[in-house]
Amino acid sequence: MTDSANPRQLRLLIADDSNTDRLILQAILTRQGHEVQAAVDGEAAVNLYESWQPDMVLLDVMMPRLDGVEAARRIKELAGERLVPVIFLTSLSDSGALAQCLESGGDDFLPKPYNPVIIRAKLGAFDRMRRMHETLTRQRDLIRERNEQLLSEQVTARRVFDNIAHTGCLDVADIRYHASPLSVFNGDILFACPRPAGGMHLLVGDFTGHGLPAAIGALPVAEIFYGMTSKGFSGPDVLRELNQKLVRILPTGIFCCACFVEVDFRDRRVRAWNGGLPDGFILRVDGSRDTLPSTGLPLGVLAPERFAASMSEYVVRPGDQLLLMTDGVLEAGNAGGDWFGEQRLARVLDECPADTSPADFLVEQVQAFSGRSEDTDDLTILALKISADDPVASRPPKASHSALTGPASWSCRYQLDGETLAGFNPLPLLLHVCMAVAGLRQHSGPVYTILSELYNNALEHGILQLSSLWKDGAEGFNRYYAERQARLKQVGSDQYIRFDLEHRMRASGGRLIIRCQDSGKGFKVDRNPGPVLSVGSERAFAGRGIPLIQQLSSDLTYNKEGNCAEVVYDWKSVDTGFEERAGFSD
Amino acid sequence: MNDKPHLDEEALAELRDVMEDEFDILIQTYITDSSERIKALHQALSGNDQDSFAKTAHSFKGSSINIGASRLGDLCLSAEKAGREGRLDDARQVLPELEAEFVTVRRMMEESLHV
User: Fold this and answer.
1) Are residues A541 and A447 in the same domain?
2) Which positions does the record annotate as the modified residue Phosphohistidine (chain B) (predicted)?
């Protein structure tokens, strides 16, 4: 017999009331290299098993006090999950009695007279089985442990993710949405963020893949989406940055199908970009609907220079519903193996009652179709009802903890020259400078609006010499923007737009002075335009901008040439009780 | 009726090999235990205890087979069957035969020990 056929040394417990048989078996096993302990009856065997914990047990069937069958049962019970092979020693000759031994919990039997060759082979086989069982048990425990670890990591990751994504405005009354609590691990994302000048950005997305890779991609998307939107960046700016970031960090083959929507409640316009998601919809009050089809590739696919972030624009009216969804809706299946599909979706949208949000109605219908509520785990749906007023602007401002921190008295000049005017948007940067004053942060909306109106007036009317009269009617609108694009390319190197910002603290607040000068010819301006310009006259030179600035600020004046506007913005801090406690009463 | 050997020389040689120094002890133990078992068989018969008779015969059979006393093992099997089936008359018939066979085996073993 070769060494490789030798089972390694085992701890073996044998029990037999027959002295002769016990002596022989003990001698055979010891000679084969095992460690052996012997008991003279079943009860002694059980006790010895407990105290010595052998690897295998060999039991005579007929023993006084406790027979082999009962001893085997108790030993198996004590062993629990461990596999402890029990082999019956027997001179039983009829097959019925032998079978009974195995049925009662034994793993095999060893006939008398003992044959050392057969004993060695059997022990070897059982040792292999025993070790395989040990390995399986260990691996199962490891898998269970890993799984628990994974779940707890997901909870932690979810918490981190919520911290990054919590600043959204998904909770406003006009938004209805459906998303599984762990949707981020399905690769689905759903964000909504107010813009500083009013309106909001919405993003519904679906990463390829599941689990950690999908969730990891969602983190920078949330960070960029919320960060850039609150700083006043436009939809295309945010989209470009999202795409560029995802291209850089995601491995090939992982990307994010997404629908990005910019909602402007004041202008009643919706701008949409859809890359790879199912059609979005605008459900009109009159029952008609527009589709927001996918026109580009998903985020994270194209190199930055090939990525097109242009958005389609739609005019909306109060009561219209915007509806966005991931492909979980179309791909929901029923017991018959059918998919929900586009036709069913179209029918559901036709049937949606006017007083029900299409998001709620759609979830109900998909559930009814699939017949299983767990199927809705993959549904991510968002509906926004277009209201007459901005739902976010009407929310009470959040009080700042530290209204008086940050710079108090400062001034700066920021000038854009020549062709930089064509391709760079300075508004987020300027807003950022102003927002360093903590107390001004509650006023980011009006400040941004003033900055952006001043800048757009200076650029479009001062530098580019566009007439807002052209904006009348849809055709004029297109002409206006076509002309704008054309003239932007021809901006001379001596052209500029200059901002001078100045800030001083005042009792319970501060004053921000914004001066915006451009190199254009200026426009005729009534030297004393009065508190509110009449609608008729303002349209002639500066669109809706001037009365809006007047409404938001304490004062607006133009120089004689009409190419430099100065706005005075006085702000009061929202009372947080901080000033009194800190002794800043004067 | 039984052509099996009294003592299987080959099996005995194997045992001698396995047991090494303990071979003598094993044989002594077998002889002692077997004498006890024959006593127990008589007792069971006189007490008409068929169950005890069958069990003792069963154990006797096991150790006899193991030690190479094949013919004795067969007689034990007959005794065990008779006991289990309640044929006490048959049991009374087989017991003297079994006892005689044991005397033979014992003599042969003791001879082999003194070789």
Assistant:
1) yes
2) 58
Write the single-letter amino acid at B77.
L
- The H or E element spanning position A231 is none
Residue A401 lies in a domain: no
Domains and CATH numbers, chain B: 24-113 (1.20.120.160)
Q: Is residue A36 part of a domain?
A: yes
Is the CB of A27 less than 8 angstroms away from the CB of B61? no
By Cβ distance, the residue of B18, B59, B63 closest to A27 is B18
ipTM rounded to 2 decimals: 0.94
Q: Strand ranges (DSSP E) for A405-484?
A: 410-417
One domain, residues A361 and A445? no
Give the count of domains, chain A: 3
Pairing of strands A11-15, A35-39: parallel
Cβ distance B11 to A23 less than 8 Å, yes or no, reads no
Enumerate residues 62 to 101 of chain B having a beta carbon within 8 A of any beta carbon in chain A. Answer: 62-63, 65-68, 77
Of B59, B63, B77, Cβ closest to residue A62: B59
- From A17, which residue of chain B is nearest by alpha-carbon distance? B59
Q: CA-CA distance, A278 to A294, in Å (whole number)?
A: 7
pLDDT tens-place string over residues B32-91: 999 999 999 999 999 999 999 999 999 999 999 999 999 999 999 999 999 999 999 999
| Residue A53: CATH number of its domain | 3.40.50.2300
Residue that is last in its domain, among A118, A136, A154: A136
Identify the contact set of chain A against chain B, taking CB-CB distances under 8 A. Answer: 17-21, 23-24, 27-28, 31, 60, 62, 90-91, 93, 112-114, 116
- CB pairs A-B closer than 8 Å: 58
A127 with A176, same domain: the answer is: no
Q: A192-238, pLDDT tens digit by residue? A: 999 887 899 999 999 987 777 777 788 889 989 998 998 888 899 99
CATH of residue A300's domain is: 3.60.40.10
- Give me the domain span that covers residue A504: 410-582
**pTM of the model as a whole:** 0.58
Segment of A80-89, A215-224, A518-527 carrying the highest mean pLDDT? A80-89
Cβ pair A571, A510 in contact under 8 A: yes
CATH of the domain at A563: 3.30.565.10
Is residue A393 included in any domain, yes or no? no
Query: How many Cβ atoms sit within 10 Å of the Cβ of residue A282?
Result: 22
